[in-house]
Design goal:
single chain; about 35% helix; 6-stranded mixed β-sheet
């Protein structure tokens, strides 16, 4: 009898195995909801944003609900400057990021394994300055770039500002070896200038406008030193998306770019009101001054097309501001946005 029962049990197990069913373990608890894997299509895009004025389009898209309007979930992660989010996009910790100066993107991409795509851009010219030279308030010894010989110059701690400063100095026949370059984190720039740690700042907003507004600094030299040295306007930076994210999640990336395009339209329509979107992202001491920022000039995702991007990258490489890229045309995401 015992043998018969065992045979019957084994036969039942065999039948269950054959029809694809396993004996149910009633004691096993259900998998908690939080532990269930999130489908890739439902995961928010993780976007790094530099809390500088160049990222105004991201701030407007976030604060005006444009990401939600286009049906894309975005998780923003903040950084003081643009270099860390670029590096994190390229090493796989972020899906996208920006805005970032093109020399930063090109230099980081030169040694990265992960590919990158670019969309939308911010342009700098004399009417839309981004980088400025600031002296301590009342320092009459500085009136032009030529006066920077022998001075200590504080810059944003990025490869772009170091290389742009070199360009600005050489344009004024100042040997870069005659100055001392001091990288300074954005929260410390104004106090370092005021306390005499440096003689000059070469920086951008929100620090620059705040420093002038509180009477700690004064602009000097060309209103837009980099375009002045280049002799023309330039694409200062762009928004970047990891190549595999653009390939694997085209609908989400298209929605992301559509939201940025809408943000750019709002900035063009009312640049002063659009600047209010930065209130949430700047330091408390900088918030009263956001409406004093110079107007920003952006290129939409369609406007930063492959020919324009290629021409800009070629100019940057020719000037020695970043490594040469054999073919940057495939980096453009101009055809992705709806």
């Amino acid at each position: 009898l015992l043998v018969s029962s065992a045979v019957a049990l084994l036969a039942g197990l065999a039948l269950a195995s054959c029809d694809g069913r396993r004996p149910r373990d009633e004691s096993a608890p259900p998998l908690p909801e939080a532990a269930r894997p999130i489908p890739e299509a439902e995961r928010p895009l993780v976007v790094g944003v530099s809390t500088l004025r160049i990222s105004l389009a991201v701030f407007v898209a976030d604060q005006h609900g444009l990401f939600a309007r286009h049906g894309v979930r975005v998780e923003l992660r903040r950084f003081d400057t643009a270099q860390p989010p670029v590096e994190e996009v390229l090493d796989g910790r972020l899906d996208a990021g920006g805005y970032a100066a093109l020399p930063i993107v090109l230099t980081a991409a030169d040694h990265a394994r992960r590919g990158v795509r670019l969309a939308t851009g911010i342009v700098e010219d004399e009417e839309h300055p981004i980088s400025v030279l600031l002296r301590r308030a009342g320092d009459a010894t500085l009136s032009s770039v030529a006066d920077l010989r022998g001075r200590r110059i504080g810059v944003l701690p990025t490869v772009a500002y170091t290389r742009w400063l070199d360009l600005v100095l050489r344009h004024a026949d100042v040997d870069p070896a005659t100055v001392t370059v001091v990288p300074i984190a954005p929260p410390l720039e104004v106090s370092t200038l005021a306390e005499g740690g440096v003689d000059v700042l070469f920086t951008n907003d929100p620090m620059a406008t705040a420093a002038v507004a509180i009477g700690a600094a004064e602009p000097f030299g060309p209103p837009a030193p980099v375009p002045d040295a280049l002799g023309a306007a330039h694409v200062f930076g762009a928004f970047l998306v990891a190549d595999d994210v653009a390939r694997d999640r085209p609908a989400a990336v298209a929605a992301l770019l559509a939201a940025l395009d809408d943000a750019i339209a709002e900035i063009r329509r009312d640049p002063i009101a659009a600047a209010d979107a930065m209130q949430e992202f700047v330091r408390e001491t900088e918030r009263p001054h956001v409406r004093l920022y110079p107007p920003a000039s952006y290129l939409t995702s369609a406007e930063l097309d492959a020919p324009r991007l290629s021409a800009e990258v070629a100019r940057i490489a020719d000037l020695g501001l970043a490594p040469a890229v054999p073919d940057v045309s495939r980096w453009s995401l101009a055809t992705v946005a709806p």
